[in-house]
Amino acid sequence: MCVTTRWSQPKRRYAAVRQAVAWCNRGGSISAEPRINDRIRVPEVRLVGPSGEQVGIVPLAKALELAQEYDLDLVEVAANARPPVCKLMDYGKFKYESAMKAREARKNQAHTVIKEMKLRPKIDPHDYDTKKGHVVRFLKQGDKVKITIMFRGREQSRPELGYRLLQRLAEDVQELGFVESNPKQDGRNMIMVLGPHKKKTEAMAEAREAQAARKAERQGVSAVEEPAEEPAEA
């Protein structure tokens, strides 16, 4: 028992070392940050100048000397190349611009959302118009809409009522959306999914344009309403 305990820990350590070595051999990196300046430990690099010009293969000491002359950083941009490719740049500015681009990309990224609208088979006409208005708004925004018809009591024996209601709704909004999933019974409910004709990105772009147009129109009206200055008397 003592022998097993004594050897179990070294075996686990050796396994961890082998795993780390295998990861390094595959080109894995502990940090996602590139190596810069004195953290670069290779005899020579393929150097790219500040404007993207190819300087060529130079010793690391020469590359670091050029970085100091330009008051820039030496950044390793392709560590797996032989020799590694390094570029002269302002690394702080580069990180800031990269973060801003990533933030803008996340801001403009389109996420398709599935909205849900629930109806009853014997819905009141006014309620139907209200629910349809919500469906129209969702489709204009580029979102999918899951329509659920809820049956209660004896209504479960009349599934055709729900089917006809879903068909009517699909026809009323056919200019904005299409039937992505045909009506199907799911227990006491009947479900249909409507998909928008416009993509989410297109809907977002149109919404931004409409908002800009309304803002410009308000500014124009304000400018017109401002009283003109009377000419000064001689």
TrEMBL record:
Gene Ontology MF annotations: translation initiation factor activity
Record-annotated Translation initiation factor 3 N-terminal domain positions: 36-105
Domain Translation initiation factor 3 C-terminal stretches: 113-196
UniProt feature, compositional bias: Basic and acidic residues: 201-218
Record InterPro entries: T_IF-3_C_sf (IPR036788), T_IF-3_N_sf (IPR036787), Translation_initiation_fac_3 (IPR001288), Translation_initiation_fac_3_C (IPR019815), Translation_initiation_fac_3_N (IPR019814)
Region (Disordered): 199-234
Record key words, sorted: Cytoplasm, Initiation factor, Protein biosynthesis
Cellular compartments annotated: Cytoplasm
Subunit (UniProt): Monomer.
Primary role: IF-3 binds to the 30S ribosomal subunit and shifts the equilibrium between 70S ribosomes and their 50S and 30S subunits in favor of the free subunits, thus enhancing the availability of 30S subunits on which protein synthesis initiation begins.
Family: Belongs to the IF-3 family.
Name of the featured protein: Translation initiation factor IF-3
Originating organism: Streptomyces javensis
Name of the gene: infC
